[in-house]
Design brief:
Helix content: 10-25%
Largest sheet: 10 strands, antiparallel
Distance between the termini: 87 Å
CATH class of one domain: Mainly Beta
Radius of gyration: 26 Å
Structural class: alpha+beta
Oligomer: single chain
Number of helices: 12
Shape: globular
Mean pLDDT: 95
């Protein structure tokens, strides 16, 4: 009898070591994560309101010249934490952000072999979850190479998805595809999914010294995707040294796609501001510049008879900006190295020597005299070594001139003479060096053709905005004729979830067909105004030429609209169909609304219950005219004013490719 009892106890203990489960829920209990260690193999699953979102999905790593760090693992420690706190942004969509989550941290160790240790942490919020790995300091894992991250996402449904392909020549600059998730091969993140009463976005946060994650379909029948890390030229995915933490793998979850835009998950998963007080130079605002005229064929980056970057032309922009609420003027092509087809050859850019015909010291002085800032430009043509050799003195040169903002460029299909991807650890390391060097010299960064956003603007608040999307310039000069009308009501649901987007709206003159006969901006003028609200960036460009704005009544909206907000609310929308956003100015009681449609006309009943209850507002409405159409009548618009009480409903009549922009001034 005693022998039988001993066997029963032994079997019970054995079962416990074979299968361990740990649960953690969101503060509102809607999201539930289960971490399972069965037969030494870790996995996780996710449900939302009781319905499966992620089925059991594997976790772990393949380390070079070692056994997979995925088997024979047992739990050493379990720690839990409940956080309910709030923090204030330096700038952003919201002044205050709630940081409320429940955390589960497990320390795992191999039961035999090298007995390596791996940490696993899950943080679950009401708007989603993040999880990451930690390699603590240990004798058997010091400097090592990650060949594969074995993290999986086994989707519970064959969700409808919106995505762009990875490993293509134009980086992130593609129009989004729509398909069943099972039809994806390998996709960049954010990957946005929608199914039966649920919307999901898979991405990552705090990408600091690691390869960016793409998602590779490894079983289309079962809808299983694996984290695919963008490699170095030699095939290495990640060079690592313990102790280290990986980026967070993030899953945003909501009832609808538009609700995903009200999430602060990525920012919450990044470290707090490490730069301290940056108020002397980090200033959200609007800018314009010598740029659009090059894309539409009116001027050239290269020196010569049609050179865009001249002292005289820059002063014309500065004069116009000084008369309006425009904070800075960008000049592309200001420095030596732009001669000829610069994107097809070894870079020759010099970042402290102006081109003939452009007196940068005089232009910078003139801008400051007018109360503006000149915005610098560092186009690298994907030559990282060439640029880094000059980077320190280039930023010192800007500091000497009083230039506190720079636009970065990395035009090219690959970095370093076609060797490295724009999305691998190579670029992640370089770009962090850029941001830290810029901060050292008191400069804000606006980055184009660079690594995607993962919320690092919280940690480095001089990292203002990025492109990382197929931008406005494609409408001005792309051989494929430009973007589709639905593009600007699609990428806010995808790329826009990762952070600020320098899309460069504000085109007023649509007739530039003399030089670009097959290109056009696929919106109405009213929708161009709406984009200042529907697309978020703390640096918003007024993209068109001063003479196209001069005396134009609709320019008043660009004059008025701010670039820094105390509140932002995604009110309504469907991916690729339409989008309505409301935002409150951080420095006044004014509210702004942007509403934008795709190629179809639609009406939207705007309920103004976001305004202060009981208050009266004067509202200015910039809307499509009766005959407005993005293709053949984009400049038909009307401006009206009226008084309303908070809570009243306005009918917004959007024409094909159209929209509406509204300003609410509290009386």
């Amino acid at each position: 009898m005693r022998h039988w009892l001993f066997l029963m106890i032994t079997a019970s203990l054995s079962c416990n070591t074979l299968a361990e489960q740990f649960n953690v829920q969101s503060p509102d209990s809607d999201i539930r994560v289960v971490v399972d260690i069965t037969a030494g193999k870790p996995s996780y699953s996710v449900t939302y309101k009781g319905k499966p979102v992620i089925r059991s999905s594997n976790l772990g790593f393949q380390i070079r010249d070692q056994a997979p760090l995925q088997d024979n693992l047992s739990v050493l420690t379990e720690d839990r934490e409940v956080i309910r706190q709030q923090w204030q942004t330096v700038w952003g969509e919201r002044l205050q952000i709630n940081d409320h989550y429940n955390e589960l941290s497990l320390q795992l160790r191999e039961q035999n072999g090298d007995k390596r240790t791996l940490g696993l942490t899950f943080r679950v919020y009401d708007d989603g979850l993040g999880f990451r790995y930690e390699f603590p300091e240990q004798a058997n894992l010091q400097d090592f190479i990650i060949d594969e991250e074995l993290t999986e996402f086994a989707f519970a449904q064959n969700y409808q998805s919106w995505w762009i392909p990875a490993y293509r020549n134009q980086r992130y600059e593609y129009q989004y595809l729509r398909s069943a998730v099972s039809s994806i091969d390998v996709a960049h993140t954010p990957l946005t999914l929608q199914g039966d009463g649920i919307a999901i976005a898979v991405h990552e946060a705090a990408l600091v010294d690691y390869a960016s994650m793409t998602l590779r379909n490894i079983d289309d029948n079962q809808k299983v995707f694996r984290a695919d890390l963008v490699p170095w030229a030699n095939g290495v995915r990640v060079y690592a040294s313990a102790p280290m933490k990986t980026p967070w793998r993030t899953i945003q979850i909501a009832d609808s796609a538009v609700a995903l835009m009200n999430s602060d998950l990525l920012l919450n998963l990044n470290e707090p501001n490490k730069l301290g007080d940056v108020s002397s130079y980090v200033k959200p605002g609007k800018y314009m510049g010598i740029w659009w005229e090059m894309h539409t064929g009116l001027a050239n980056w290269s020196p010569g008879s049609d050179q865009g970057a001249t002292t005289e032309r820059a002063k014309q922009y500065i004069d116009f900006a000084a008369q309006h609420d425009i904070d800075g003027v960008l000049v592309e092509g200001w420095n030596k190295g732009w001669e000829g087809e610069w994107w097809r050859r070894e870079p020759t850019f010099l970042f402290d020597q102006p081109v003939d015909g452009f007196d940068i010291e005089e232009v910078s002085r003139y801008a400051q005299e007018k109360g503006l800032r000149l915005i610098g430009h560092h186009e690298t043509a994907a030559g990282i070594s060439h640029y880094e050799a000059q980077m320190e003195r280039a930023f010192a040169y800007y500091q000497k001139l009083g230039i506190t903002s720079v636009k970065m460029g990395y035009v090219g299909t690959r970095l370093e003479n076609g060797k490295e991807w724009h999305h691998g650890q190579f670029m992640v390391r370089h770009f962090r060096k850029v941001v830290e060097t810029a901060a050292k010299y008191g400069v804000m960064v606006n980055a184009h053709e660079t690594i995607k956003d993962t919320g690092l603007r919280r940690t480095y608040p001089n990292l203002m905005t990025r492109e990382s999307v197929r931008g406005m310039e494609y409408n001005g000069g792309s051989p494929d004729t430009g973007n589709l009308p639905n593009h600007t009501v699609l990428f806010p649901f995808t790329r826009g979830l990762s952070g600020p987007t320098d899309y460069t709206p504000g085109v007023f003159k649509f007739d530039y067909q003399k030089h670009r006969p097959f290109n056009r901006v696929p919106t109405t003028l009213a929708k161009q105004l709406a984009l200042y609200v529907t697309i978020y960036s703390p640096l918003q460009m007024a993209a068109d030429l001063p003479e196209h704005y001069q005396g134009h009544p609709a320019f008043k909206f660009i004059d008025d609209v701010p670039a820094d907000w105390s509140e932002s609310i995604a009110l309504a929308g469907e991916v690729g169909e339409y989008l309505v956003f409301a935002r409150k100015d951080r420095h006044s009681d004014d509210w702004y609304v942007g509403a934008a449609s795709n190629e179809l006309p639609r009406q939207y009943a705007l309920v103004t219950d976001f305004l202060d209850s009981g208050a009266i507002y004067q509202v200015e409405i910039y809307a499509d005219g009766e005959a407005a159409h993005w293709r053949d009548n984009p400049m038909d618009y009307i401006i009206t004013q009226r008084t309303l009480h908070a809570g009243e409903t306005l009918i917004l009549d959007m024409k094909p490719g159209g929209g509406a922009a509204l300003r609410f001034v509290k009386q």
